[in-house]
Amino acid sequence: xxxxxxxxxxxxxxxxxxxxxxxxxxxxxxxxxxxxxxxxxxxxxxxxxxxxxxxxxxxxxxxxxxxxxxxxxxxxxxxxxxxxxxxxxxxxxxxxxxxxxxxxxxxxxxxxxxxxxxxxxxxxxxxxxxxxxxxxxxxxxxxxxxxxxxxxxxxxxxxxxxxxxxxxxxxxxxxxxxxxxxxxxxxxxxxxxxxxxxx
Length: 199
Known about the structure:
About 30% of the residues lie in helices and about 15% in strands. By secondary structure, it is of the alpha/beta class. The chain has one domain (about 15-190): Rossmann fold.
């Protein structure tokens, strides 16, 4: 399997699945550990001139948009840490996401809205999950899984179908070994408590 280190990512769109299921209080991130854990892979890609598309979930919004679970706070904090702006799309695979991805330049980062705003991410219908994964990956030539704490929970369509065999045309990338070893795993990723509203 290729890694970020040996894949020619310059100018290419790479979809990155991150674990950004962080605790919030009044719309502010109260523990940015998972966001910091995402930095090594993102930095490796942007420094190499990749056009990065970040996807993640936050909480359990029941398959429809819910401002309480917007990734806006995570995108804002991610923008602050490396000093590189992160554009947040207003939807997951709709017009806003498509426009944001189309406008990416080398080294840019776009974050899609909460994957769970689309019910297909957690659907039990494999056909629907496959369709959703296909829409997510349609504009990317590579996929990197940085959601280490989320792998053991099943992962949803964004992990199972993209990283699996459903999309053989998409290069699946491992993170650089030196950086993967520095990223802490998270325990109990599905039970992050959002201080502003219980799960």
